[in-house]
Amino acid sequence: MQERDVDVAIIGAGTAGLSAWQTARQYSDEVVLIEGGEPGTTCARVGCMPSKLLIAAAESAHQAREAAGFGIRIGDLGIDGKAVMARVRRQRDAFVESVLDSMQRIEPRNRIKGHARFEAPHTLRVGDDLRLHARTIIIATGSRPHRPDALHPAGDRLVDSDGVFEWEDLPESVAVFGPGIVGLELGQALARLGVRLRMFGKSGSLGPFRDPALRDYAERAFNGEFYLDPAAQVETIARDGDQVVITFIERDSGQRLTERFDYLLAATGRRPNLDRLDLENAGLALDDKGVPFYNRFTMQCRRADGEGDAGHVFIAGDASQELPLLHEANQQGRIAGHNAGRYPERRAGRRSTPLSIAFTDPQMATVGLSRDEAADRFGCDGVAEGGASFEDQGRAVVMRQNRG
Q1: CA gyration radius for the chain?
Q2: Reduced to 3 states, what is the DSSP secondary structure of residue 139?
């Protein structure tokens, strides 16, 4: 067993991990980056970059269909599913390659491949052959799609948001479970590319919106393009041959329908990659989901012995289960890298105003706290509200785009 002492050990080489490495290197040459999964960031491999490629193709098809509204006749619209997906994968691979190229500036001895897990608060076991003793440790292990047990009867016809980008052709039909941001982006793109689609939700939520008026408006807008029921009554899911058979109560009509789909797409959120780290050996205080308690301004984890948040372990990116967004991962990684590098000194880092955008049509965005969050944080009995509609604005009428 090889033994090695380092100043900072970073588990995970995604956006947060790379940001943490670049920052921590300002304080020491003994900073190692450990990667046990697929190379390249989540954003480049299976996140915002490939999804935007699919959305761009769908937008082209949609604009071609809408051209008649401007007096422009294009003729029959043909969509080559194989060509669409080949471009998505080709460009996706180029994005990943650029990330891998950027990692080459990290010294080979400080790039470690293997699965890391805690043996003790300052000790990591990497694979079977290396034991690392680290002054500080940063957890930046990212997240993976969540697949609820209720969807497992679909068998290998169940795909998640990672698997979509491995398709070599567009399917004829897809049932999407989860009308959050990912589900709406991918679902609308597939529908505009000619895929027969139904989208089912469970709780009634839709995209990033919590305000009832905005949620209801968005629901009407999307139902104009494809079937969407954010509070669906799904009775059974079964595998039959190469298809998934779903029985559900159709909204509005109340009829019980049974339909067949080529795939069931689970867009039901992501879970942090913490379950294989043996965190019980790290001396950290964990919540009921196994996520460390941490200070969001220092990214420093709380110790289990009641010593507050003065521990030597930090967390960043999707692993923190705060906001699974690229800019948040980059910022959290930078804060964690600074504090791990200069430990035991620590400083509060600047956090951005919460910002979330769904690249649907119409686009949806939230900035800052929600009404309920603001009321809870500031103890307000009431929150002032205002609203404005741009439907009658000149640009909306001329461009046939703005809604709401």
Answers
A1: 23
A2: strand
Which one, of 392, 39, 115, lies nearest residue 274 by Cα? 115
**pLDDT (average), residues 221-230:** 94
Which residues are CB-neighbours of 181 under 8 A, at least 6 positions away? 207, 208, 356, 358, 364
Q: Where are the alpha helices (DSSP H) in 320-361?
A: 326-341
- Cα 164 from Cα 171, distance rounded (Å): 10
Q: How confident is the model at residue 74 (pLDDT cuts 50, 70, 90)?
A: confident
| CB 175 within 8 Å of CB 265 | yes
Helix locations, 67-201, DSSP H: 81-103, 181-192
pLDDT band at 376 (very low <50, low <70, confident <90, very high): confident
Dihedral sign of CA atoms 173, 178, 182, 183 in order = positive
In this prediction, residue 36 carries a pLDDT of 85
Helix/strand/coil percent split, the chain, to 5 = 35, 25, 40
Query: What is the pLDDT, as a whole number, of residue 40?
Result: 64
216: left (phi over 0), alpha (psi -120 to 50) or beta: alpha
